[in-house]
Amino acid sequence: MTTDQSLSKLFSIRGWHKNSGIREGTARAYKKRFLENTLEMETRIKILTACGFKIAREMQWEEKVYPSDVKGQLVEKLKEMKVFWSYDQDKKSRITDETLIESTLMHLDSDEILHLFKLYPVPVIKKIWRDKMLRQEPQYHGLNRLYALWLFSIKDPDRYINDFVRARNKELQCKD
Fold this sequence. Notes:
Helices cover 61% and strands 0% of the residues. It has helices at residues 3-11, 24-35, 41-50, 67-80, 89-92, 97-107, 110-119, 122-133, 141-150, 157-172.
């Protein structure tokens, strides 16, 4: 729950301030200031802490990200790792989205991989992962298991991978 949701829930309980060390008059003033949206964040946190709430996760802020900047950073990291060594200098600036996603999944670290999700929707990344990396099973088995579980929330990655490989092998078999 957010801070505001927690306070709304707390203030909806009659006698919420009892056993918290907050006096009744102060409790009324806090509730009034909350409803008027003038209660400071520090005070909100102190009230919740006094009433037995725990912070599950600290507030996290992210600055606005521009897709072209993220894409440029990923391409630069891949160039540094010499992933595009065989490309013409002119073509390096025109790397397709599919190539960028595939190369990032294969060569870069978790932080950079998470940047992909700022650029592309999950189904696009998953499709490229299935088409490019999962087809190369067992070469990328460790990565495939990791990505299935971590990025795509597949509950049983081994079964998913085995089913994919089995279906792929059936496609490739000669039909009499």
